[in-house]
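Notes from hallway chat w/ T.B., transcribed later so I don't forget. T.B. wanted the structure written out for a chain they're using in a teaching module, and asked if we could keep both sequence and structure tokens in one place. Agreed to drop them here.
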Amino acid sequence: MNHHELNKVLSNLPLGGMRYFDSIGSTNDEALAWAANDARDLSIVVANEQTAGRGRLDRPWFTPPSSALAFSLILRPTTDEKPFLSRTVGLAALALANSIGMLGLAPQIKWPNDILLNERKAAGILIELVWSGEDVECVVIGIGVNVSKTAVPTTDILHFPAISLEHVLGAAPNRNKLLHDILASLISLRPHMRTDSFMNSWEKSLAYQGRQVRVEMGGEQSITGKISGLESDGSLKLLDENGKTVTVRFGDVRLRLFA
């Protein structure tokens, strides 16, 4: 992976700009700074290595050299898109699931922001916003995919079992092509974010459908129930032991199978 290769592979996509780094602290930090200045819609930051990558809740994201796909995409939402910004994580998740599915695999979306293979985490998403007063100016979508086996950290620092594409496929796929496929899928899905069919696709891709899960809300608070679907804003719907629907909003949440 290098700047020349990426320019060639991504040349047929309507990107606003690209910054490539052999090594960087965090692609999201670079993208947030760029977004706060002159970054155009669909600008992207790509790194071969991250030394200070992070996921949700400021957890570290492990990105050794040449082992993973690590990038951040900048979106400048239109007026029509802004009421549906809470669906952005679904947009990224579906683009990831579609692209990994093209490799002959069966990915699932672990709500709200992970992609699972064989019930292990293969990819993660971090959404961050750039504000102008009370208005969202830009959305930064950070994505990390465990491509090679070396992208998976040791078990003592994992919060959830992880896996790489190489573990499942037997060989690591080409990172440049995978990046192209993810971006192409996201660009194709973006006009449909406001539709019911988009939400239906997101729901159908959810991991643990109909299974008992526990959602930890931070501190000592947790909710247990069976996953039944999504609200229109992307919030998770559970059925509790009395058959009552409970809605779990985005935020400081951790979802686990209930054993």
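Follow-up for T.B.: The longest helix spans residues 175-189. Might be a good example for the class.
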